[in-house]
Design goal:
By secondary structure, the protein is of the alpha/beta class. The protein is built from ten helices and nine strands. Helix 3 packs across helix 9 and helix 4 crosses helix 5. The radius of gyration is 18 Å and the shape is globular.
Length: 266
């Protein structure tokens, strides 16, 4: 039996740990990992955790979408592509709206959708070896379904730089722009997370839930983006995947070359 793409556990304090578990592909997400995240949230919702800690197994936290999976979804019907985008959106948004504090511990690469995942968490601690990038444009895709969370986390001005350039930036720059709250040596990552968890456990659960809800109601994205707006983002996200430009971008990834933009191939 293959290992589950998402693992979770709950300790006696009510601290849940959800672990992305595809280290062989740097925890890149595919349909199975997305469904694993949704299933973990469903299971945990019956256990009433106090805090949720999100981690990634292996050297990297989360490398964005598995582009081999994306390339397999792309030629399917519009409905099937939209369903894939909707599931991805739902996984991020359900993390975003969990009524308990969430803490992400980031090591190594955190790319594409991974940046949206951490933007949807309440507290983010990065190891000093963490590296970030909002990569979608590099492959002829868009980050439509995570733009609201990113705008909440780092502001429109920073999104307009990093989501357009697709450039990589390190942990200290991520802290400077607000994507992460704290940077620690890699060896201290779990300890720093444990310290934040203890601080959260010292606080009243209902007060935490209400404070989080009120903060999100005041935000640009998150709960302030209504269902119709998200439906539009899902459609844009899925439709872009089926364009000629995306086909060229995904081919460039598979062939380990630069995309041929504006030279007749896209």
């Amino acid at each position: 039996m293959p290992a589950s793409p998402v693992l979770w556990s709950l300790d006696e304090r009510g601290v849940a740990t959800v672990t992305l578990n595809r280290p062989e592909v740097n925890n890149a997400y595919d349909g199975a990992l997305i469904q694993g995240v949704l299933a973990a949230i469903d299971d945990l919702s019956t256990k009433r955790p106090r805090v949720v800690v999100l981690k990634g197994n292996g050297k990297h936290f989360q490398a964005g979408a598995d582009l081999k999976w994306i390339n397999g979804v792309r030629p399917q019907s519009s409905d099937e592509n939209e369903a894939a985008s909707r599931a991805t959106f739902e996984a991020v948004q359900r993390l975003n709206t969990l009524p308990v504090p969430t803490v992400a511990l980031v090591q190594g690469g955190c790319f594409g959708g991974g940046t949206g995942v951490i933007a949807a968490c309440d507290v983010v601690i990065a190891a000093d070896n963490a590296l970030f990038s909002i990569t979608e444009v590099r492959w002829g895709l868009t980050a439509a379904i995570i733009i609201p969370q990113l705008c909440d986390a780092i502001g429109v001005r920073q999104v307009r730089r990093y989501a357009l350039t697709g450039e990589r930036f390190g942990a200290e720059d991520a802290r400077r722009i607000g994507l992460v709250h704290e940077v620690v040596p890699l060896a201290d990552l779990d300890g720093a997370g444990a310290k934040v968890v203890e601080q959260l456990l010292a606080n009243a659960p209902d007060a935490l839930a209400e404070t989080k809800r009120l903060a999100m109601e005041s935000s640009f994205g998150g709960m302030a983006v209504d269902d119709a707006a998200y439906a539009r983002l899902v459609k844009l996200h899925s439709a872009k995947r089926q364009t000629a430009e995306a086909a060229e971008g995904l081919a460039s990834f598979a062939e380990k070359r630069a995309g041929s933009w504006g030279r007749g191939k896209a």
